[in-house]
Task: structure prediction
Amino acid sequence: MNIKVIAFDADDTLWVNEPYFQETERKFCELLEDYLPHHTVSQELFKTEIGNLGLYGYGVKGFMLSMIETALRVSENTLNVEVLEKSLQYGKELLEKPIELLDGVEEVLQALKGKYQLVVATKGDLLDQERKLMKSGLENYFHHIEIMSDKQQRDYQKLLKHLDIAPDEFLMLGNSLKSDVLPVLEIGGHAIHIPYHTTWAHEKIEHHVEHKNFRHVQTIRDVLPFLL
Ligand SMILES: [Mg+2]
Result:
């Protein structure tokens, strides 16, 4: 491997994220229990989120607007304003969650720093992701932070152009096969999948990935033998 730059996904690769969203969703569904069963509200929220992705992009603010839109629809505009107030409050709480680094992250960054250019490549709200990175205490390990509106092939191509490297000099590490692995392999880069115990339905793909530039590991520490 001729790797020069290693890019890390952030949410559920460097730190805990999806469980916080799931906890918020659970509380939101409880708010609407009088209108529809939990599971149905959850499905309706997912539908709204996916429908709004093109308009709002990824991140907490879009999620908050989707909660409000779902609440209005599910209640046929009859809801108590308290539901709106609570939805906003839950969203703000999500923005203020502490950063919980995943096991082994700091050790791996320490081992790789100086040997490669380390980069963060993440989706989400700009301000939220910047704040999370600052709170994480990991900023100094990284040469560059890329907060992407999406993680499709053209988004990675833009990043490579900015970093001025060839695709086969780029390695992406992340928990989403759909966002962190497949588009990178498709443009000729390398990717390592580090699964997290829970994944947002939108990031799930069923098929099995086989590629010469692809590896699957169990934990972030397992990437070190390939890279040192
Ligand atoms: Mg992730």
